[in-house]
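We were asked to recover a plausible sequence for a given structure. The inputs and outputs are reproduced exactly as logged, with field labels preserved.

PROBLEM: sequence recovery
POSITIONS: 217
GIVEN STRUCTURE:
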């Protein structure tokens, strides 16, 4: 029976899969998330989602499907990833204050390759670095939402920074967390901003029979 592995330690992605009624286990992958020279936000997020997925697929058996994802904030073509510290988080949120930005989330799926010596090397994995093991064919897709922020009061910003929440979030905020008060409008799917678009998950996992047989109430 095919099973699913989530190649992410994100509790928010795990929560979305549980809410969809999808069973899974977690096996996260650490990859270098520094953007390549002249890399666009679209290319960046798809490259990282693919790299995470294929790295985990290379250590999973062939009866496993691996799902990887990555999210980035796009401000006029500039990539806002996870801030290195509170100073960078403060600078990011000041840039986002009172304006609209884009949030891109890419999702990649691949079968495990452990024990398979014949799987071809995926082009996206080759672009992210030298391959050290057979790499599964994969599918990757992208969804984008536009987020409009209220002007962020300086005192409120400092209180938010003190929570520590911004430090592991792309763009230094979590739309489903304390930063919800900063958000005026989301044009697109909220799960894209949270980090795992449900529509993409359904489209990519459906062919593997990994979706629940009955819709959840």
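RECOVERED SEQUENCE:
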């Amino acid at each position: 029976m095919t099973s699913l592995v989530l190649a992410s330690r994100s509790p928010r992605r795990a929560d979305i899969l549980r809410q969809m009624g999808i069973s899974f286990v977690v096996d996260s992958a650490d990859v270098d998330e520094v953007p390549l020279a002249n890399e666009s936000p679209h290319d960046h997020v798809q490259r990282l989602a693919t790299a995470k997925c294929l790295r985990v697929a290379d250590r999973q058996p062939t009866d496993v499907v691996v799902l990887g994802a990555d999210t980035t904030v796009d401000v006029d073509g500039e990539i806002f990833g996870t801030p290195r510290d509170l100073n960078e988080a403060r600078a990011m949120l000041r840039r986002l204050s009172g304006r609209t930005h884009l949030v891109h989330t890419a999702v990649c799926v691949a079968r495990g390759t452990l024990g398979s010596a014949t799987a071809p090397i995926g082009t996206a994995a080759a672009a992210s670095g030298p391959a050290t093991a057979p790499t599964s064919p994969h599918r990757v897709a992208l969804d984008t939402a536009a987020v409009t922020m209220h002007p962020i009061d300086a005192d409120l910003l400092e209180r938010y920074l003190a929570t520590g929440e911004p430090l592991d979030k792309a763009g230094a905020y979590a739309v489903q967390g304390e930063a919800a008060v900063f958000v005026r409008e989301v044009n697109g799917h909220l799960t894209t901003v949270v980090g795992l678009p449900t529509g993409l998950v359904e489209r990519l996992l459906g062919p593997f029979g990994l979706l629940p047989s009955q819709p959840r109430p």
